[in-house]
Amino acid sequence: LRTLSGSRYDLVQRNNNIILEYKKQDILSLNIPHDINGTEHSTQKIQLIVKSKYGLDRIVWDDSALRSQGGQIQHGGSQSAQDYQAILPA
């Protein structure tokens, strides 16, 4: 027979090897071309590949280096948040 009077101070035998299976979810993936080539002041479409779990409203570009050279990035005018074009500098 087993008595419980002395066992109340014993350590509880548990399986402490907890394994958590967690996969990092990709919320947003944005692929842009490495190079955009063209002649001076030409307008080149930026081919974006966007994969988003929740959709995409807009993209905020840091084009200060491009603007300082006389170029710019602007929205293409469609309703798509992926429609952008680059105006190349001189």
UniProtKB/TrEMBL annotation:
InterPro entries registered for this protein in UniProt: Intimin-Invasin_domain
GO cellular component assignments: cell outer membrane
Domain of life, per lineage: Bacteria
This protein's name: Outer membrane protein
Organism, as annotated: Escherichia coli
Lineage: Bacteria, Pseudomonadati, Pseudomonadota, Gammaproteobacteria, Enterobacterales
